[in-house]
Design goal:
CATH topology of the largest domain: Malonyl-Coenzyme A Acyl Carrier Protein, domain 2
CATH architecture of the largest domain: 3-Layer(aba) Sandwich
Number of domains: 2
Structural class: alpha/beta
Number of strands: 10
Strand order of the largest sheet: 8-7-2-1-9-10
Number of helices: 13
CATH superfamily of the largest domain: Malonyl-Coenzyme A Acyl Carrier Protein, domain 2
Shape: globular
Largest sheet: 6 strands, mixed
CATH class of the largest domain: Alpha Beta
């Protein structure tokens, strides 16, 4: 069974999507439609901008979404997923390609999500840290004992968990996790504590937009971040999507559940190969590849 998976923030690079734009009229039309919807030429920043341009949250998230979704659409009849999933932002890409959301509605939600997250970051400065070489349970137990806001945020693969919280909370956690034997406990260059309670102002703004957007049942199950489980009901999809911003990304659980449900091919759609690398930490025997250009 084929799983198509979609990357999240951090996979962007200058020039992303240019080959697609040049090679396919369908892709060009969709990129131009995106420029109209967003009200600025995101293609100029994607194709010819700087790293700094692409690091702006209002650009990063729509750029990765567009690269992933338009790439999937240019695959035509070759795009035949038995299951889909996306890491954080990538969940929106997965929902559009699986027919649960229209292209326009998906892009509008991603843009609102990016701006709401940026606003939340400005309300209370916060950050994230990657913890490598330690069991999830040990990390959870240590961060749960800290009085500051700090939580497990991204369960990326066995031995790699990202924590999220206030600057003080993350600093205390890094010190404690280092002392407890983590191979690496490293603060990440991000603008805020994504997938933590500090994203509540963003969740509230995005919840209203999601509630007012039409969702359909997808063409195949989507494994959602909040629980790593396969979902096919549009009402449950909406509920889980609203919870996503303040809940952890359970990617390790997602991969394990896909494998348990018969996945034997794992195709990454979008910039980079990060998700293929994470699967190799779970099961090296499964065939992995990147889609299209």
């Amino acid at each position: 069974m084929k799983a198509y998976v979609f990357p999240g923030q951090g996979a962007q690079y200058v020039g992303m999507g240019k080959d697609l734009y040049d090679a396919s009229k369908e892709a060009k039309d969709l990129f131009e439609k995106a420029n109209d919807i967003l009200g600025f030429r995101i293609t100029d920043l994607m194709f010819d901008g700087t790293d700094e341009d692409l690091r702006q949250t209002k650009v990063t998230q729509p750029a990765i979404f567009l690269h992933s979704v338009i790439l999937a659409k240019t695959l035509g009849d070759d795009f035949k997923p038995d299951m889909v999933a996306g890491h954080s932002l990538g969940e929106f890409s997965a929902l559009v390609t699986a027919g649960a959301l229209s292209f326009s509605d998906g892009l509008k939600l991603v843009s609102k999500r990016a701006l709401a997250m940026q606003d939340a970051c400005e309300i209370e400065p916060s950050t994230m840290a990657a913890i490598v070489g330690m069991e999830d349970k040990i990390v959870e137990d240590i961060v749960n004992e800290i009085d500051e806001i700090v939580v497990a945020a991204n369960y990326n693969c066995p031995g790699q968990l990202v924590i999220s919280g206030s600057h003080k909370g993350i600093d205390i956690a890094i010190e404690k996790l280092d002392a407890a034997g983590a191979r690496r406990a490293l603060k990440l260059p991000v603008g805020g504590a994504f997938h933590s309670p500090l994203m509540e102002p963003a969740r509230e703004k995005l919840a209203e937009a999601i509630e007012n957007t039409k969702f359909q049942n997808p063409i195949c199950p989507i494994y959602q971040n909040v629980n790593g489980q396969a979902v096919s009901n549009s009402d449950i999809i909406k509920k889980n999507l609203i919870a996503q911003l303040t809940s952890p990304v359970r990617w390790t659980q997602t991969m394990n559940n896909m494998i348990a449900n018969g996945m034997n091919e794992y195709i990454e759609v979008g910039p980079g190969k990060v998700l293929q690398g994470l699967l190799k930490k779970v099961d090296r025997s499964i065939k992995t590849s990147s889609a299209g250009l």
